[in-house]
Amino acid sequence: MGLGGISIWQLVIVLAIILLLFGSKKLRNIGGDLGNAVKGFKSAMKDGTAEDPKAINDKQDASFSADASVEKESEKTEK
User: Fold this and answer.
1) Are 27 and 18 in contact, with CB atoms under 8 Å apart?
2) How many CA atoms lie less than 13 Å away from 13 in the CB half-sphere?
3) Cα dihedral 67, 69, 74, 75 sign
4) What's the pLDDT at 6?
5) Which of 9, 33, 56, 79 has the fewest CB atoms lying closer than 10 Å?
């Protein structure tokens, strides 16, 4: 028995049929495209974690400016 009740010979037959349908060049291109997509995803994840502190600082700055505008509004209403 192989993976989940599928024997090795069944896997070989399925892979041979896929190779006949698509051809080796097309499968190589698909593999390369998939590899590039994974690399892009990993680099985007690294970039996202690197920008988190900056995004947090921007949010803090925005909340600070919002607090300042609320204080100005309350000062105007007190006068």
Assistant:
1) yes
2) 5
3) positive
4) 82
5) 79
Q: Average pLDDT, stretch 29-52?
A: 84
DSSP notation for 5-68: TB-HHHHHHHHHHHHHHH-HHHHHHHHHHHHHHHHHHHHHHHHHHHHHHHHHHHHHHHHHHHHH
Q: Residue holding tokens 């399925």?
A: 14
Q: In the predicted model, what is the mean pLDDT of the chain?
A: 75
pTM of the entire structure? 0.41
Tell me, what amino acid is at 78?
E
Q: Give domain limits for the chain.
A: 23-78
